[in-house]
From TrEMBL:
Pfam families membership: Glycos_transf_2 (PF00535)
UniProt-recorded name of the protein: Glycosyltransferase
Alphabetized InterPro entries for the sequence: Glyco_trans_2-like, Glycosyltransf_2, Nucleotide-diphossugar_trans
Organism: Herbiconiux aconitum
EC number: 2.4.-.-
Lineage, highest ranks first: Bacteria, Bacillati, Actinomycetota, Actinomycetes, Micrococcales
Keyword Oxidoreductase: no
Alphabetized UniProt keyword annotations: Glycosyltransferase, Transferase
Transmembrane intervals: none
Gene3D superfamilies for this protein: Spore Coat Polysaccharide Biosynthesis Protein SpsA, Chain A (3.90.550.10)
Domain of life: Bacteria
Domain Glycosyltransferase 2-like: 5-129
Amino acid sequence: MTLDIMMPFYGRFDHFREAVQSVLAQRDPDWRLVIVDDVYPDPAPGEWAAAIDDPRVHYRRNATNLGVGGNFRECVRLIENDRAVLMGCDDRMHPEYVGRVRDLVLTHPDASIVQPGVEVIDSEGAVHHPLADRVKGLLRFGGHGPRSYGGEKLAASLLRGNWAYFPSIAWRADDLRRFGFRPGFEVVQDLDLMLEIIMHGGSMLLDDEVVFSYRRHAGSVSALTGPDGAKFAEERRLFDETATRMRALGWPKAARAARHHLTSRLNALSELPAALRAHDPAGRRALLHHAFAR
């Protein structure tokens, strides 16, 4: 099983270099890396990537900037194998990542979504445990070893708080092509995709063995769109739509989780200090609306 590692690029050169080097360091050699440069203004990262002497590494530069969602859709278009990862250009794979994913897929071939174990690192690469990730740990299903979930139970859990780590997930390529990333969702596109797969009968395999480092830092899309309320407007649209669809499916617990979206409301409140410091009244109003509107 060759694993396609799709890496949309637009960001810091040092983080990007670490991400690519972590792929090159995989102990299991059966992978293919495709870097899709979304017209990053500095040509140096692309020149470095294009010079890598490894036939498994492919570098492409878009003709025009496609934006976050557009570049993810371009990555999906370029997938060739049955399983694919949409890896962040600032994250790190541990050397065992590809091998562990291979083992999980071989032993659980019906899993649509494979979520391996993840640790969180900061901008400098040190392991840390910010509040958001401590909450994710509380919401995530407990247990030990690989375990499978699906249906309303999985949908309701993710709607209470999205504890998955999108850049670490190994997806079934056919699901990515079938459902893809909808225009208009750039911050919650991962949750939207997972819910679509789950509503169509797909399952998630959850594992504990840590083989991936997810970088949480102030330059991420989620962090940049928090204080002005933009990401919460996206979330609210998705929650409203999903509540209706869950009721139609006869999944009342998932519909309630979407309607209440408690952790999303609390997250909006946590962004208020930043909006106040930025003297952004529109952002403040958007955050308060998301936190308290019925």
